[in-house]
Recover the amino acids of this structure.
């Protein structure tokens, strides 16, 4: 049993028509290393059909090609292609023969190439993909996740054929079941021995089991082995210990082996005791995330996925929710290693469409296979603790929608009974068809708004309760989107119901987190979103009177690019809301200072998007704004804040007037230093300061300087404008250029500017709030020199190496 990396040696181009051979039509092929997003480099335009939902990218189609030699000694073996994600409606051809297809661009699937192979000769693999108006966000296009080639003998373990489950945890041992599906594709009956050896994180052998198995031609069998692992270290977010199972098939022809990583841990959910991992209570400090990687588009390159998890955990999150499609294998691997809990999600729609050409067209035919693919991908990953069967599905408020929910939940449980099943229910959408009647029962729009959040008021109505009751009963955990008013309501009406805030407004975490902490039936909160993303442009952008028509817009005009609702921007830098959330979670004791842009003072519209945060920056450097009014926010776990500018107190006020743990002040900008002093009960409990930056210099740093020549490796270069003391210069943005020489290429470049015509493939970008980001990808073994320049500033040279 051998698994070969298959990400190198590809090219891509636009598709050719069926008569291209007769006409001689040709299109140049561009070499590419997978994972890759071909749509990222297409021209954006204001008039594309998908508009801002898809970040103003066009619909498009692409052809991926790979020519490879097949050794003659592979004859008699089973050769299959593993595609971890092909966006979208992929068709696979080998030597111009149709071999397989998949509709969903996020589904991991396998294609048997064996019947179409030419042994001892060159073979041509062609994969066609197409996308457009099929998502409510930027989906990308292409082979955006890894591709692998499986070459197996006649008797072999099936792909995804090893399933490892924690049976029970005891004081001195862990009991683990290993269930291995073995297949005989040969022409004679074979008896083989299946050996499983488990090693700990250091590689030391813990336990071995060996079992004979006889298989007739064409037969599959599940070999069950129970192992008793003495003093096994458990996996948890705070201690993500991993083990390895080496599974071997031994017969007279030799030994074939595969390895499977896994973690030992238990999960329980309970309306009185909440979520427990290994018996310990855990509250989910959650972030919803989309699948794109900013300047890389939708490409799920291993290091990009890992970096996102590292930065999200450093910002205080301990859980992510896949929005709204299954995560990549690379991201799950990172979550296992780093200790990030996962709610993996299957679909954004069932039978009712949300976009003109979305998955609802294929759902009735593919739902069971795609759910099975998600579970097969996830079940050995200890980080995955919840399966979600959908997001904001309109059908959940109908009897037949409840039937779908029950069928899917039961299907998932049959495949994996060890994890709870949830569904992200938007109770307001469940009654959207009778909204006027519901509004009238609530006393009209003004009364609904006065009662609190509009979404919550509708979602907590009697009509919503009745409509979602049956579909909610099919779940182990009810996910509620923007319906925190149901937490207490359901605790009384449905005392056996466990709830998770599967999607919440980011600005409300100060109010929501105490509700989670005080509600035993609620196991956590997932903000929309943890990391900013491409598409759904501007849903969290501030709205100003100087540029808007006075009404709240949830989709902004071209050239808006990102949603602007993340705690972290698309380059991975933290926004002020991230520090506020960290304080609310009780993970940060130091206060945080955020300053509104003086040039925009007083221009914000009175009604802002519920996904937005204040347009503030952690800076006291605003040249040209001396003497102008400015808004200052201070976030702190305190009850009073004193604000000092250049040593003099300019304001003092209570925390919590605008939001919990937040104080807002009006003062005048004066260069120098601003200090916020936090008090609790009259005693100072913390202080923080911002100083005006000096003369601008160019700074650059790289997260990894020693790289390996693999398809998963990247180096991230943070480019910043800083003064001699290291202070960030946010008001002197300028163009910066990155030049890469040697064994690497510039894979992408970006800033956090939410509205720009710059392209991710460009080597020159204008910084935004003093920052930009470049991504370097290795192309071979050797040195890489990265030079960062900007007119009028000294260049920065970084030396990297690839081995």
């Amino acid at each position: 049993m051998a698994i070969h990396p298959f990400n190198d040696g590809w090219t891509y181009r636009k598709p050719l028509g069926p008569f291209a051979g007769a006409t001689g039509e040709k299109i140049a092929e561009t070499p590419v290393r997978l994972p890759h997003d071909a749509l990222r480099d297409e021209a954006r335009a204001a008039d594309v059909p998908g508009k801002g939902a898809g970040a103003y990218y066009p619909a498009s189609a692409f052809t991926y090609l790979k020519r490879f030699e097949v050794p003659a000694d592979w004859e008699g073996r089973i050769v299959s292609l593993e595609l971890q994600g092909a966006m979208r409606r992929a068709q696979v051809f080998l030597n111009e023969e149709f071999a397989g297809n998949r509709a969903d661009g996020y589904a991991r699937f396998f294609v048997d190439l064996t019947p179409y192979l030419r042994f001892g000769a060159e073979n041509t693999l062609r994969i066609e993909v197409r996308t457009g108006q099929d998502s409510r966000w930027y989906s990308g296009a292409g082979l955006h996740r890894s591709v692998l080639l499986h070459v197996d003998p006649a008797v072999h373990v099936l792909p995804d054929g090893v399933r490892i489950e924690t049976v029970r945890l005891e004081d001195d041992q862990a009991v683990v079941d290993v269930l291995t599906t073995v297949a005989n594709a040969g022409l004679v009956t074979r008896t083989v021995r299946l050996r499983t050896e488990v090693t700990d994180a250091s590689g030391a052998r813990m336990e071995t089991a060996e079992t004979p198995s006889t298989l007739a031609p064409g037969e599959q069998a599940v070999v069950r082995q129970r192992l008793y692992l003495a003093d096994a270290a458990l996996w948890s977010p705070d201690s993500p210990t991993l083990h390895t199972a080496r599974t071997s098939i031994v017969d007279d022809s030799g030994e074939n082996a595969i390895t499977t990583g896994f973690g030992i841990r238990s999960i329980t959910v309970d309306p009185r005791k909440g979520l427990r991992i290994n018996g310990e209570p855990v509250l989910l400090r959650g972030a919803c995330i989309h699948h794109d990687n900013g300047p890389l588009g939708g490409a799920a390159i291993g290091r990009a996925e890992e970096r996102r998890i590292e930065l999200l955990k450093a910002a205080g999150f301990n859980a992510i929710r896949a929005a709204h499609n299954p995560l990549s294998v690379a991201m799950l691997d990172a979550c296992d290693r780093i200790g990030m809990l996962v709610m993996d999600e299957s679909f954004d729609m069932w039978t009712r469409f949300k976009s003109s050409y979305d998955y609802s067209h294929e759902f009735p035919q593919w739902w069971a296979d795609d759910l099975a693919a998600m579970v097969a991908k996830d079940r050995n990953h200890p980080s995955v603790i919840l399966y979600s069967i959908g997001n904001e599905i309109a059908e959940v408020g109908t009897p037949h929608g409840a039937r779908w929910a029950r069928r899917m939940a039961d299907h998932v449980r049959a495949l994996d009974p060890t994890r709870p099943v949830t569904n992200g229910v938007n109770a307001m959408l469940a009654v959207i068809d009778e909204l006027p009647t519901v509004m009238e029962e609530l006393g009209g729009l003004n009364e609904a708004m006065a009662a609190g959040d509009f979404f919550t008021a509708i979602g907590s109505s009697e009509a919503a309760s009745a409509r979602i009751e049956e579909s909610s009963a099919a779940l182990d955990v009810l996910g509620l989107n923007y319906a925190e008013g149901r937490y207490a309501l359901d605790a009384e009406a449905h005392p056996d119901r466990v709830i998770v805030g599967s999607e919440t407004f980011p600005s409300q975490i100060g109010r929501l987190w105490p509700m989670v902490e005080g509600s035993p039936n609620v196991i956590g909160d997932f903000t929309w979103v943890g990391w900013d993303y491409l598409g759904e442009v501007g849903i969290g952008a501030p709205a100003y009177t100087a540029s808007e028509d006075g009404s709240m817009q949830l989709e902004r005009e071209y050239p808006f690019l990102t949603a602007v609702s993340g705690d972290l921007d698309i380059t991975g830098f933290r926004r002020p809301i991230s520090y506020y959330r960290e304080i609310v979670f009780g993970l940060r004791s130091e206060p945080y200072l955020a300053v509104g842009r003086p040039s925009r003072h007083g221009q914000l519209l009175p009604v802002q998007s519920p996904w937005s945060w204040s347009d503030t920056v952690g800076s006291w450097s605003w040249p040209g704004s001396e003497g102008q009014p400015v808004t200052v926010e201070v976030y702190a776990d305190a009850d009073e804040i004193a604000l000092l500018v250049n040593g003099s107190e300019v304001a003092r006020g209570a925390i919590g007037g605008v939001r919990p743990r937040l104080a807002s002040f009006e003062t005048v900008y004066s260069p120098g230093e601003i200090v916020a002093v936090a008090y609790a009960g009259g005693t100072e409990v913390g202080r923080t300061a911002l100083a005006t930056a000096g003369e601008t210099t160019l700074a650059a740093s790289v997260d990894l300087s020693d790289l390996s020549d693999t398809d998963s490796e990247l180096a991230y270069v943070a480019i910043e404008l800083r003064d001699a003391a290291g202070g960030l210069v946010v008001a002197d943005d300028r163009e910066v250029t990155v030049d890469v020489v040697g064994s690497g290429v510039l894979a992408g470049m970006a800033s956090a500017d939410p509205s720009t015509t710059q392209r991710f493939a460009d080597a020159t970008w204008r910084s935004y709030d003093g920052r930009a980001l470049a991504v370097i990808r290795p192309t071979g073994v050797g040195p890489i020199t990265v030079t960062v320049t900007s007119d009028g500033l000294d260049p920065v040279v970084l030396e990297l190496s690839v081995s």
About this structure: Residues 399-415 form the longest helix (17 residues). Residues 697-802 form a domain with the Immunoglobulin-like fold (CATH 2.60.40.10). The chain has a mean pLDDT of 95. The chain is about 15% helix and 40% strand.
